[in-house]
Design goal:
This protein has 278 residues and is an alpha+beta fold. 24% of the residues lie in helices and 32% in strands. It has one domain (62-277). 25% of the residues are buried.
């Protein structure tokens, strides 16, 4: 090895300890900054995901109620007889509502039915017509209501003779008394739908979770607000429903109230059958 190369190697300087420490500090600052950015983006993503889920919940809640409240009274109900002891198309309350209506088609007439007969044959009939009385309310074609007193296969025995002639394939609807309200399930506020209100078969099925407030207002044909309690529910022509949903978890960085983000949606529902019933 030549002397020039040896001298060059001897004269080469390394990294000092101070330079190494400075490099480590700069690297640590860069890593901390990147980590802070990642954590911030991750938290923003989680918050946005919760907000989207909350908005979907509140929309699902109000859409379901709108479709059924709008159809309250459909089926030419016999209000004197009532359904499960409920005799008003709308039973109004500030934070719950009960409606009557033929809201679900369950079958069709297999053969025509003649006025005066109390036996009808359906294309299909299940044990939904058997057992407790809250299963037995039906509407034929939405034109008249009746009560099933017995079933043999697809043949139903009605409590009262039908009043009109009906062709085959006439739709058969199930009449329900449905209640919407708020309850807690495992510590979570939920919107429930009870398909068999005021009966031993009461079923409070969760429609949407994290729905913490539900309010109803009722208006007459002139748009005037009806004060609760309403002595004559048949005067109701429009229902305003307001739903408030919250995120699944609170956010310690959200310095408003208890840390939960909330969304409120309101909708006016015109009850199209009330004027006909009156």
């Amino acid at each position: 090895m030549s002397m020039d190369l040896l001298n060059a190697l001897k004269n080469r300087k390394g990294i000092t300890l101070i330079e190494l420490l400075i490099a480590l500090v700069i690297s640590a600052l860069l890593i901390a900054s990147l980590y802070r950015t990642f954590i911030g983006q991750q938290k923003t993503y989680i918050v946005q995901e919760q907000v989207v889920e909350m908005q979907q919940n509140v929309r699902a809640a109000i859409i379901k109620m709108i479709s059924e409240i709008r159809m309250a009274g459909f089926g030419n109900l016999d209000l004197a007889a009532g359904v499960n002891g409920i005799t008003n198309v709308i039973t109004p309350s500030a934070n719950s509502i009960t409606i009557l209506g033929a809201l679900r088609q369950i079958s069709t007439l297999e053969a025509g039915a003649q006025a005066g007969q109390n036996l009808i044959t359906l294309a299909s009939a299940t044990d939904a017509f058997d057992g407790a009385t809250y299963h037995r309310y039906i509407s034929i074609g939405g034109l008249e209501s009746n009560i099933v007193s017995g079933r043999s296969g697809n043949e139903l025995t009605l409590q009262n003779p039908v009043t009109m002639n009906y062709p085959a394939n006439t739709p058969i609807f199930k009449i329900h008394a449905i209640t919407y309200g708020i309850r807690e399930a495992a510590g979570v506020p939920v919107l429930f739908r009870d398909l068999y209100s005021n009966t031993a078969g009461s079923q409070r099925v969760t429609v949407a979770e994290n729905i913490e407030n539900l309010q109803f207002e009722y208006f007459d044909a002139n748009g005037a607000l009806l004060s609760l309690p309403i002595a004559n529910p048949e005067l109701i022509r429009m229902v305003r429903v307001t739903v408030t949903a919250r995120t699944i978890r609170s956010d310690t960085d959200f310095k408003v109230g208890d840390g939960f983000r909330r969304r409120t949606i309101a909708s006016n529902i015109y009850v199209r059958n009330m004027e006909i019933i009156q």
